[in-house]
Amino acid sequence: MMSFDNRLLYIVFIFVILGHSYAAQAKESESLSYQDVANGIQQTFESRLFELPPRIQGHYGIRLYRMTGDEKYLPSALYDYYVVADRMHAIVDGIDNKSFIKERSEYLTGAMSKGKRGKARRKALKAFPEFIFYADELLRHAARLNAFGVELPGKIKRTIAQYDYLPAITDKTMIQAWAAQIANYVYWLHQLGIADHRVAYKEAFLAAYPDKEDDKLSRWHFRNKVYGLTHFIFAASGFYQHNVSSNEFGWILDYFDQNKRRILNDATDDIVAEVGISFLLMDKKSHPLVELTKQRLVRAYNVEAGMIPSVSGKLILSSGEHRNVLTYMLMTWPEQLTPGPFFNELESMNKYVPVQLLDNKQKINKAKNIENKETYQQSANKIRAEYDSNFLKLKTSAQNHYAARMYRLTGDTHYASQAVNEVYQISERLDDYANSLDSATWRVEQARAMIDRLPTTKRGKRRKNALANTGDKRFALYLVYQLAKLNEYGLEHPAHQQFIRYLKQADLHDLLMSPQFIKAYAAQVANYVYWLKTMDVVDWTGELKMAFESAYPDAYDQKLTKSEFNNKVYGLTHIILADSNYYQNLVSATEHQWILDYFERHEDRIVNKTKADIQAEVGLSFLLTEQGQHKTLKAMKVSIQNAIHPTKDRVLSSKGNDDLSKGEHRNVLAYALLNWPDKLFKGPILNEHPELKRRLPSHYQ
Fold it and tell me: Most buried residue among 154, 265, 598, 690 by CB atoms closer than 10 A?
């Protein structure tokens, strides 16, 4: 038996050996670059990828695909697709069966871990026993399939929508047990177009974890809070498919920065990596905390194992995948994220996609050519959410256009407040015009400056030519537009009668009805003619048909270039849109039948050769004339639905540009087409809203 002295010497010896080992490890880690760590993790996991369970392998493959766009990761992602679809298939027949839901909820609750987190969650679920089925199983699987571009059966979406998630996701006990997961559920509901609880959850989260009480939080709860905050950002990004707005989530980054010392000392490696990635998702690559998170993870990296071990030092591939793939992402963050994968759009993979899903009837086809009202409404709600949440980022003109149309489509008074801002913009301009209107020289100078500002594109040159030698007429037309905008809001400028007298003698008829001008400004001609009528200046609406047919005779349609055909169709839609005073009134189908007939005859060419804006307006022309079941309307809806980008939740330009302001016109039109209301709202007539009236310039009071 070893003596006490010998045992003491042995223990000292072991500590010396371990000390040398840890010192060597630390020294080796310090010499590693970020790329070294990333390469080591990638080599470790990809050399043994087949050993990972399906869910873990899919998690890795999906994230590496989004980081790199490399199709070699698609098989692993497809593995996840198969597993999730299979699990959904296994439960779909019971989702409307109360006994099944109860039994399944009990099973899922019982299967939770027996540790501290599992106990906290089981306790929280006592008040919401079925939440785990609806949120963590049904909603989670549905959102995963949707993220692959799969169109879900109506039965699944209806079942998800029937459950009231709000009480559970705003419950303090639930948040303190499920902070990150609830963020996921909230954004998945929004992703699917079912419910928007984002504001409610943010408020509930801040109430559950108020910053002023951080010093009272245990390490476990502090981790849960930070983990939950990262998932606000991750879930909003579609899990690394696109960046998110610092205007919307900057408050979270501020919190991380203010609490960086505690995060770096107390958070797990997973959470530290997620904090760093949160900054990257808002393009804050140079923030000092990004560097600090990287340094912390380099120190945690085990060179011999090629991975970061668990808090307890375990080197298990499957349980360590999460923190290691996050570390890889942090160290190698790309310039451009890759959305998807959308397997039906990938030629290399779509032949491997299951041909049936869930109910053996629903084909996995992202762009089904059938009318689906529920899908249209869901897409419209996503567009609205995207633009509502980014409204302040839009250029002023786009804000004005969007708010006016959304008010007329929804009647929501919060959109009306933007009209007050627009009135100030217009009134200031008209005040200047009133002071100088009597000067013919001034009017011509104004017109010339407007013409000079036209772009040097092919269309811009055509418009300059059409306006050559027209004196002050370009100014007169712009004045019509400004007065018409005030008229739409039920207002008249103090100098209104002075402006009207000028317009009555401005001699605009020949210009507006000329083939050359219509070929340059087809849609605008319709606008000007109807605005002049609305303001009782002059009525030339009866001459529009003949003027358009003179400029664009149907017999010459086959000779029209793509640009010319777009201009013609765009002009025809605006005759109907302008007659409705831009979605304020329905109009006569009889009066505009010649236009509707033209659209029907050229339906295929419109779908294949015109821009999304124009297709939406063609569809809206049928809705404004109460032709809601017309086959051409249905064709336009299908085309617009198919044009919506699966992750950006809006219609991009024909060249793939996703600029919000430049895309506002086509997207608000897409919203209107896909979610046409039962009633249109006039205005907003600002004098009918006392609160808004008080905010108007004094001469409208």
Answer: 598
